[in-house]
Amino acid sequence: MKFQPRLAIIGFGAFGQLIARHLRPHLPVFVCDPRHRANDLPHISLTEAAACDIIVLAVPLPQFEPVLRQIAPHLRPGATVMDVASVKIGPAEAMERILPGHVEIIATHPLFGPESARDGIAGHRIAWCPLRGAGHRRIGALLRVMGLDLVRTTPDQHDRDMAVVQGLTHLIARSLDRLEPQTTRLTTASFRRLSEAVAMVRADSPELLHTILAENPHAGPVRQQFLAAAIHLDKAG
């Protein structure tokens, strides 16, 4: 009988649920979350989750280090711990610093969410930062079979890229969303694209917005450059 590694998802919010839905056909999936329960998946304690073969951390960033410290003493040699946070420098440093040396580590950021992946995850991208061990190869192979495109990067380069890709997208979209209701009768193709971007991020939690804008060390300078450019164009016009 072929060995199937057990996978624990710590944090069963909207993204944790998305992970479970797509991974459960491939692996035994367990859930650990004191607030959200899965009706059709086994719910386990934090200690039991730490004893699994693959542990996915899908908790809000303020809970990240406390959870790492709680699971660290219970992790088995050879286990793989991976995160799905929207920033990478901080979580990667925390995992390398707190987790024992016998644990393999992957920092990841799926570049999609429940809204953008509502029709499936095939063709979507995931930022992939192997930090310790070789477990990323077998897990990466599974994700490729599922149709994901793994983009190898470093935590620092990821955050530099996301300062523009996510930071400016959320800044612009959230700002537009605060304006008066927009016309739907007279629109252009470019405006409709902007409206789609607003709709895609509207349901994102305040915690995610804070993570993207405040926890990425490269986001502030990029935001200031953008605002300065906007002010310059406004004065020039």
Oligomer: single chain
Uncertain runs: none
Structural class: alpha/beta
Domains (count) = 2
Overall shape: globular
* Helical content band: 40-55%
CATH architecture of the largest domain: 3-Layer(aba) Sandwich
Task: Please outline the helices and strands.
Layout: E1 7-10, H1 14-23, E2 29-32, H2 46-50, E3 54-57, H3 61-71, E4 80-83, H4 89-98, E5 104-110, E6 125-132, H5 135-145, E7 149-152, H6 155-165, H7 167-177, H8 189-202, H9 206-214, H10 219-236
Written overview of the protein:
This protein is an alpha/beta fold. 46% of the residues lie in helices and 15% in strands. The protein has two domains: 7-153, Rossmann fold (3-Layer(aba) Sandwich), CATH 3.40.50; 166-236, no CATH class. It contains ten helices and seven strands. It has a seven-stranded mixed β-sheet with strand order 2-1-3-4-5-6-7, with helices on both faces. Strand 4, helix 4 (89-98) and strand 5 form a beta-alpha-beta unit. The radius of gyration is 19 Å and the shape is globular. Keywords: Oxidoreductase. Residues 5-237 form the Prephenate/arogenate dehydrogenase domain. It holds the Pfam family PDH_N.
Features:
10 helices; alpha/beta; 15% strand; seven-stranded mixed sheet; globular; 237 residues; Rossmann fold
Put the structure in a nutshell.
The chain has 237 residues and is an alpha/beta fold. It is built from 10 helices and 7 strands.
